[in-house]
Structures are given as C-alpha cells and as structure tokens.
Write a structure and sequence with these properties.
The protein has 429 residues and is of the alpha/beta class. The chain has 2 domains: 167 residues, Lyase, Ornithine Decarboxylase, Chain A, domain 1 (Beta Barrel), CATH 2.40.37; 253 residues, Alpha-Beta Barrel (TIM Barrel), CATH 3.20.20. 29% of the residues lie in helices and 24% in strands. It has 11 helices and 22 strands. Strands 5, 6, 7, 8, 9, 10, 11, 12, 13 and 14 form a 10-stranded parallel sheet that branches. α6 links the parallel β8 and β9. α3 crosses α10, α6 packs across α7 and α9 packs parallel to α10. It is elongated. The two termini are 41 Å apart. The structure holds pyridoxal-5'-phosphate. This is Type III PLP-dependent enzyme.
Length: 429
Amino acid sequence: MAVPPDLAAALIAENFSRDAGGVLRVGGLSVIDLTKEFGTPLFVYDAGTMRRTYRALCAAVTGFAEVDFSVKANPNPAVIRVFHEEGAGAEIASGAEFDAARAAGVPPERILFAGPGKGAADLDRVIAGGIGEIHLENREEMVRVAAAAERHGATVRVALRINPGAAAQGGAMRMGGKPSPFGFDEEAMDAAIDAVEAQAALRLVGLHLFAGTQGLKAETLLGQWAYGLGLAARIARRTGRPLETIDLGGGLGIPYFSGDAALDLGALRAGLPDLIATLRADPGLASARVVLEPGRYLAGPAGLYVARVLAVKESRGSRFVITDGGMHHHLGASGNLGQVVKRDFPLAAVVDGGAAARAATAVVGPLCTPLDMLARAAPLPPLAEGDLVAVLQSGAYGLTASPTGFLSHPLPAEVLVEDGRATAIRHRG
Ligand SMILES: *Cc1c(COP(=O)(O)O)cnc(C)c1O
C-alpha cells in the first residue's frame, strides 16, 4: 500500500465518512450530534467497522486459525459482545475481565486466561466459573493454579507460555533470546512440561506464544507463527499426547503514524499453506485448534476520541490548541504508552471541508503537565473555541489504558454506533 499523505484522511475514508458540509460521521451519524447528546470528551466506536475488521481477518486465516478477542484492548462488555456475536472467544488477563467477557455472553469454555501474575483470588473466580484454559507463565503460578484446581475438585486445562530462545531471532521474526517476565524460557521448556505433567489437577493441552505487539509485516507474523508450531510439536512429543490448542497470540498491528503501511492480509494468506501443511503432517498437531487473539487490530480502527477546543493560543510562533481531552483518557495518543519515539496519532478536525489551509498544530489536553499532548504537529485547518477534534485509531488501548485518576477529571462517555443508532455503553462520570 502506498504511504498515505495524510493518514487521518485515509483512515476516515476507509472507516468513517464526511458529509457534504465536511462533518465527520460514524456509522452514518454526525459526530457533532453525538457530542450534543453525550458531551465531550467522548469515545465513539463503530460496531460495523469492528464486524468488517473481524470478518476480514477470519477470512484471511480461514483453514489455519480461529480469531479470539484480547479483552484488555477494550474491555467494555458491549465491545466484547460485538466480537463474540461474530464468533470470537475471549483472552482475559484478570478476574474482572473474566466477568466482563461473561457479561458479554462469552461462554466460560471459550475464555482463556493469560498474564504473568495471576493471584489466588482471580484463579478461584475463573475456575469456579468454568474457564476453558489457563496459560502458565512461571513455576509459582503453576503451583497456585494446581492448588486452586484442587480446592474446586476440578481438573484445569492449561497451556505453557513460552518465551522463545535465540534461534527465534533469525529472519524476519524479530523475537527471542531476550530476558522476559512472560512465560517460561524456551531453554527450560522440557523441565516446565515435566513439572506440569506431575500435577494431577492440571491437564497440559496447549502452547501459548505471544511474541510482541504492533506487527505490521506479514512475513514477521508468519515467521513467529511457524516458530510457534515448532514449539508446539516439541510439547506434543514430550507429553506423548496430541496438542488441543496452539495459541499464537495477538500482536497484529494497525497504522498509527504517517509512513506506516497497513498489515497486508493478502500476504498473510499467501504464507499460510505452508503452515497448514506443517500442522497436517504432524499427528501431534493435526487435531489442535489454532487460535489468534488480537486486540488492537480488531478494536483500534473502529474508535474515535473526540475532544472540544477550549482555547487557541499562539506562543512565540507556535500554535497550541487546548482541548478538554487528553492523556488522562488516551495515554497512547500522548505518546506515553510505551512509545520509544513520540510521534503523532492521526488526528482530524471534526468539521473540515478541505478548503482551508492547514498548519502544523500542537493539540494539548487540560492536565498541568507538558506530557499531556495529543499531537505535536497535526496538519489542521484553523480552529476556534468550541470546535471539535477527533483522534483516529482510538478503539483499542484508550480509556482503560490511561491514568484516569490523574487530575480527577470525570470519565468520558463511551458510545457504540450500530444500525444508525448510538448507545451509551459507559455513562459520563
Ligand atoms: C495484550 C495481549 C494480547 C493482545 O495484543 P495486541 O497487540 O493488542 O493484539 C494478546 N495476548 C496476550 C497474552 C496479551 O497479553
């Protein structure tokens, strides 16, 4: 795909629209009208875009893998429900996320529990609730899961999360050989398998590999998945039983910055026959369910974060637009959620007829810290007090990945648009 000259405009054309007056619309509804009804700041999600994205990914990996939803990307039960209606199970990382997935209608056997620090109370909660599978990340946790299983008189299905070794650094894979708090090191895999096999209350059924987030290259993902199949085959050989699940993690990326090219689903599809052949050829793998569990890829493109301009200020030759929205709701857009280099998320004026001249504009939030910046140099038309701006790619790692308590502003509403109707799925604080 060609590099889009203005990523925000390209994303609006792909997932949203503008009417004749240049007003941004979500699922056919005017963003101005949505802010009149629900106030600002505001998260808006388009269920139609979520469904289209889910179906396109499933179609690309059909015959190879099923697609679950990683709840931490957006744990609102109404969002989980959209993906579940499309066929997704849920990957969760806490007892509260288990409850959110259950509230969304996901049956417990379609839920898997990952995360490096699962405590006894959360384990009791999910085992009592009949969870499908728990991913083991370290020795203490394995013992804790076994003890919880015994307390409930249950046999719990578990998978081993493996942190790949140096051999996984080759080619396009870009993973492996590094120290990590997640999972068992590949070098210790056989010992970990034997330790799980010695626990009567645990049944080792699968492998879990999650190599890293925001992968935009098909060849990188294919290399990681192929490596995962090799690890899975080793587990099946050592236990002497066929594997039931091979969880290859999430990590499919979306374009955030100008110059990012979207993941090429066609290239992903083209690489799958080799992996499918590997699965079929190995009796230890042939009957396994292969699972992908993306969060960002599924939920990100469907969301907007809308904020209202409070002031426009020139300071020594730079233009600052001060809004009511900021890093307290959207840490990622401020560049403070793990980004090494701070670059601007795609951001647009809600009303933009395209005629006005654009100028590089800093968009800042209301917090008393220079970190609270939604864009450093967004190409925006002139704006005034009362106007609206929208951050694109805001459906994943938005509100619940942000320091919402910092400066004690109220929580924004979250709104889901579907079939021409807008529903508050979280009310304003
Ligand atoms: C965070 C996480 C995911 C989702 O990651 P994305 O990059 O959003 O796809 C999937 N699996 C596990 C275990 C995770 O921790």
